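1st attempt posting a full record on here, be nice pls
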Amino acid sequence: MPHRNNFLLNRLEPELLNRLTAQLSLVELDRGQVLAEADRRIDKVYFPHSGIISCIVELSSGNAIETGLIGNDGAFGAGHAFDDRVSLNRVVVQATGMISVISSDRLISIANEFPVLRNLLLDYEHFLLSQVQQTAACIAVHTVQARMCKWLLRMHDLVGPELLVTQEYQAQMLGVQRTTVTVVAGELQEAGLITYRRGHIRINDIERVRQCACECAGTIRSHYQRIMKTNYPTD
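the predicted structure (as tokens):
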């Protein structure tokens, strides 16, 4: 069943997943596609199979920073569906991938019928909040190199060693100048951890990247395991 490529959907009992499947659509989302704008209501819930959804806080200065990444380990829009809330930030597809989509109203209806589904999705929302909080602390105290390595680890978990991303986008996601990203990426390439060319990064040595990443990478994985009561999907 294709919907089981999402880790949350894969945890559901067959009866519940079959109930959901009748309402789920399988679609491909393109890189750069906007799923939500700040202060706009969300009427769909997305369960990625592949690719990456990025939550971005935009400032009036034009600067932006990434506060959370969602891949096949989670979902976007579930918490908003339950509370009928608007999006607090901009949400875009960072890497192309297949996604299961359901309307918020239909998801709520099924979750009311199956409390185990509601609890699973709310647990993930709790984890996502912990990721955002950890990101805030990380930005405040850790070096750009350590943060970039943490970001590379997360990207590797979600899409593997080949990343399509520009330095301009990386700078936005890390909340730094593009020149800073150029310097740090150059240092990592010189050390043999990555290979970088325009718009493309290859992670050559994931273990050394892990060693150079800040503690937040491990903390986020630990939060996932504790809150979701399971091993992290790539462990």
